[in-house]
Amino acid sequence: MSILVSVLGLAFLILIHEAGHFFVARAVGMNPRKFYLGFPPAVVKTKRNGIEYGVGAIPLGGYVKIPGMHRPAAGDLDVHFGRAIEEAPPLGRPVGDLRRHLDENDYDGAAMALERVRAALPEASLSPLALKSAERGLTEIQDALAPDAYWRAQTWKRVAVIFAGPAANLLLAVAIFAALFMSLSGSYRLGFELRGTSDSVSATVNDVLADSPAEAAGVQADDKILAINGERVDGDSIRPTIQDSRGAPVTLTVERGGKTVQLQPVRPEKSEEFGVVGAVGESFRVTWEVTQEIGRSVGRLVTGDGRDVSSPVGIVQGSSEAVEQGTDTYLWVLGLISLSLALLNLLPLLPLDGGHIAFSLIEGIRGRAVAREVYERVSVVGIAVVLLLFFIGLTNDIGRLGD
User: How far is CA 237 from CA 176, 204, 223, 244, 351, in A?
Assistant: First the structure.
């Protein structure tokens, strides 16, 4: 159950990321063509105002299709129509006309040539695979030639749409941290964590915080708390009982190694009280500190120490363990993962969001587009780096599983 909760949590973070792209794209007039819960193929779908909404068969995150991410190029025609021309050579003439207009950057002429390709397609005798590829090509190039295509937009609009994904994850992390600060504001605690699952909390101590009242009282990991001030308690009643003490000394009775042990009295400590503004401010402080630590982790990776990197395997494992420690712990971890996703995506590497932002800024400064070949070469490097990070993270996770 905890693994399922952690997987769904990760999928939710990806969905929030894609929703950021989607809503900002609509706001700046760059109308997405598709927005899915999960990934295609679609289980169910509907179309409204030119946007296809659906639920994908792969239930992880979300998917947004923004039109014309790249300027249309003649090379695209080989990918989409190459097989169709082999099977029906007469298609070569209208496709060749379309190629000429794209080579000349004549996009109005290309739009008209595309319609001639569309008209010629039903007359060609094509295999299902060639027909499907050609139809996909018609859709892709039509989107790339559309007035609302991504590559046609002003630089600030392109940057806003791409940045919106990481920004959504960043804002979610801040909101989660702020909500937790609010929920824990002014509470009394002894400074130990209980074991538990997403459904219940046990009375067994999982961990004891350093320099806490629990440590001063002599609480140890694996102690089972039997009573507080002589009254029997279970996993669900321990925290409310500590809260009811309002800071007065409490005495814990625990089971340790099969024996009943009464610990010395100790006063619970009161956590800092936060209003909404204070909780948000504290949330930003934590976010900044974690951001700095993630930056240092990347630096350690460059110098050869990659033990801080995790793959999706490690993320699911860590978050499932957090689920078992209770809702508060899991939400902290979920917020940290959301923040990590935001920062990872802002690395200036294609195909990550940060790479698209960097190229949009470069094109805005230059006043003209970067050649498609440059995009493709840089993307190869970026994909290689991302795969390297994944490999390092996976080997780290396997090592940790074996510890």
Answer: 25, 13, 16, 11, 50
Distance (Å, rounded) from C-alpha 395 to C-alpha 306? 10
DSSP helix, strand, coil percent of the chain (3-state; round to 5): 60, 15, 25
pTM: 0.77
For 270, phi and psi rounded to 5 degrees? -95, 130
The phi and psi torsions of 149 (rounded to 5 degrees) equal -65, 145
Q: Which of 214, 235, 270 is the last residue of a domain?
A: 270
> Is 313 in the same domain as 223?
no
Element (H, E) at 56: strand 51-65
Q: Report if residue 20 sits inside a domain.
A: no
**Structural domains of the chain, count:** 3
- Asked if the structure places residue 230 within a domain, the reply is yes
Inside any domain, residue 249: yes
Could you tell me the residue range of the domain that residue 382 belongs to? 276-402
Shared domain for 229 and 295, answered yes or no, is: no
Domain end position, chosen among 270, 295, 312: 270
Rounded CA separation 265/382 (Å): 58
* SS3 category, 234: coil
Q: What is the pLDDT along the chain (403 residues), one digit of tens a residue?
A: 566 777 778 888 989 999 999 999 999 999 999 999 887 788 999 999 889 999 888 776 788 999 999 889 888 899 999 999 999 999 999 999 999 999 998 999 999 999 999 999 999 999 999 999 999 999 999 999 999 999 999 999 999 999 999 999 999 999 999 998 888 777 888 989 887 654 567 889 988 999 999 999 999 999 999 999 999 998 888 888 998 888 899 999 999 999 999 999 999 998 777 888 888 998 999 899 888 887 777 666 555 554 555 544 444 445 445 445 567 777 888 888 899 889 888 988 888 899 999 999 998 898 887 877 788 788 888 788 777 766 665 555 445 444 4
Give yes or no for a contact between 397 and 314, defined as CB atoms under 8 angstroms apart.
Answer: yes
Which residues are CB-neighbours of 114 under 8 A, at least 6 positions away?
Answer: 98, 138, 141, 142, 145
